Known about the structure:
The chain is an alpha+beta fold. It folds into 2 domains: about 5-95, no CATH class; about 100-165. It has helices at about 5-10, 60-95, 100-130, 135-140, 150-165, and strands at about 15-25, 30-35, 50-55. A 3-stranded antiparallel β-sheet has the order 1-2-3, covered by helices on one side. β1 and β2 form a beta hairpin. It is rod-shaped.
Amino acid sequence: MKTNFFSLINQIEFTGNLNISIQKATDNNWIVSVLLLNSQCGDEAKNRIPPLNLRGTSEDLDNGFFENITQPIQSASYLMVNMDSFMVQLEEAKKHSAMEKQNADKEKKAKDERDKKYRDAMKKAEELENDSKFKDAWSALPKASDYPEYSKEILEKQEIYEKEFAPNLFTS
């Protein structure tokens, strides 16, 4: 027996996976459920698209199956592709929006201010170190907990200053 089922499926333009479920309802009647899934679509609204359910005898389905599924499958595919495209464009627009740029500028400015405070504190500590005021230099250092990205440098400086103003009596 020769059929043209897959040739006819091939003529339907869609993107994704076409799931077809066939169930015998009664002696002569069938229920065919057709669902299009598109895993590339990032919009969760795609999950609200219901399957297309057809009922009929084998003769009814032989004669009208493809005529009844072609347009709904193409519409669902078009919708999911456009949803995904919309989501991508929305993210792109968000990146270029004035508000996003403004937030990025604020974050950069805050980081620059924070880095300036760190550099100023380190400079002050070095000036006090040059004047041999190690205790004051230790106090002038920024807190390692406030600047975790510089904690190694801060702790090394603290150790150097501590050796000068509070030497260990148990080592030579």
